[in-house]
Structure formats: structure tokens, C-alpha cells
Amino acid sequence: MFRLILILFFLLNFANSSFSSDANKRDYNLLNNKLTIYINTKDSTKEIFKVIENRLNTIQMVLDTYKSDSFVSRFNNMEKFSEISLPDLFVDSFQILSNYNKITKGKFDPTTFSVLSISTKLEKVNFLLNSDLYNKCISLKNIEVKISNVFSKTQTCTKISFDSIIEGVVTEDIRYFLEKNNISSYFISFGSTFHKKNLDKISIKGKGEGYLDDSNVKLLIAAGVDIKKINSFSFLDNFKKSKIKTYNIDSKKNMVSFQEKMFVMVASESPTNNNIMANIFNLSDFKNKKFDNLYEAEIPILIIYEDRKLLKVLFSKNFQKYLKRNDAN
Question: Which run of H or of E encompasses 285?
Fold first, then answer.
């Protein structure tokens, strides 16, 4: 019996964190996604990875909706008008969501998780989005912030998720920790978010590297993008109908918005901003606005979309430095 318990303990831990044979690299199964960290140093990385794992556990205990005892789960399970004191990570992350809710004029609303916590099946989600019962649940206005870290909500059914920024938050946190500890050469890859520093010799070749799959690489090659030039990016691939997340729902139209086949890449120096901007850009009406507005945008952003079965490419002026052809327009 004791031997069986040991075997189960080993298997559970291996499922949560599988380690590469490379002492400088770790692969994790985090928040139902793959996280890879590589540190380019001759020194021992054992203690560094130990601290990183503790930081990852902290992030999960605050923002992971899959954990029933996390702070976000406690908030989601609160009765209306009750109050809860939340840690700084929750407060800061919530502020980012709130800011982008305003930027999109309410089209992006993380409280659409009120419906996704019930079902992620397309037909049922669309039905629930238009039901009177759930219509009252979906609004960031239902969440009140008292003082600085005390939260309450006016509807018990209102629930929130950080799925639109969680990859960026994790990547940003690890980046901050590594640089604070004078690690000058590394890469972090988490889901659709990637950040590297001083690793120009590291190539990205699709599935073999694990950062972009073959179909993504082919799209970028067709668009004339030199991926090796980009040190930090996030992407959203709407050519594939992935699992519904809060950023796939247009709360203004009350519908799931895999609105068209499109690939978005944002490549600023902030993993958190890259992550949320790439995710929510599919809710914008970019084709109904003048292209000049996007081209002159300060954000390094690329859009590849299908129009009448032809691929078209749009990019901002600040993204042009990542193209193989510098005179592209």
C-alpha cells in the first residue's frame, strides 16, 4: 500500500511538472498549458528554478480558476454584497482587465466567464449569453473595488477569469525575477506568449522548438516576417477554432466572436500587454477603419486575415522592423 502511494505521488508530481534532462531548462504543465523556461548560464540553476516554482504556485493560488481555493475562485463563489480582501497580484491584474474593458468600449469583458463557468459548448454559450438570467451577470460594473484591495460584487452570479492575460502575467513575473537576479540570457515560452533576451542564436522552427506550430510558421513566412528578429511576442490564431475563452466573446453583441479567419501578433517589450492585446484584437472592427490608423499605431502589431479565400497582411509601422522586406507597406 505504501509503495502504491509513493507511485501515485510520483505520477501526480510528474504530471504537474515534467523536467528536461537539460539542467538549464524546465518544462511545466501550468494552467492546462505548456510553460518552458531556459536559462543560459554556466552556474547552477537548481535554486533559481526552485524559487520560480514557488512563484508559479503563488500565481496559481491567486489567479487560477481551476483551483477551488484560489483567490479568484473565492471571489467567484462570493455572495453579492459580501467583501473579500485580495492580494496585490489580483488587484494589479484586475486593473489591466478594467483598462482594456474601457479601451474596447465594453466589447471585451472578463465577466463573460459567468457563462463559460457553466458551459464551453458553442451552442449553449450563445444561448446563455442571450438569456435574461445571465445577461445581468455579465458586466464589469457588477464588481466594486473598495479602498484599494477590498472587492465586492452586486450579483452573486458574476464571475471573472484572467485567461486573457495569464500567459503574459506569468512570463512577465519570471522575466522580472530573472533580471533582478542578474540572469542576462534566457527565454520563456508559455502558450502563445514568448520572451527571450540575448539568445540570438536560438532559432524558432515550429513544432520542434515548441513556440509556434508549423501552420503559424507558414503564415509568418508568407507574410514576410523574420521571426528570429522578434524577442517578445504574443499571438492569437483564429484560423483554428480553439476552446472558447473570455476574449472570444463580444459582450456588446452577446455572441461568441470567432468572427473571421485571422492571425494576430503583438510584439512590444511587455509580455502582459502583448498577451491581452493579441487576445482581444479579434473583437475589433479593424477592417472598417482606415488602414492608416493601424499603420501609424505605436504598437508593433501584425494581422494576417482571409478575405475571399485570399490571405491579406496588415501591420503597423512599428512592426515593420521585423519584416524581411523593410520597404513593405
Answer: none
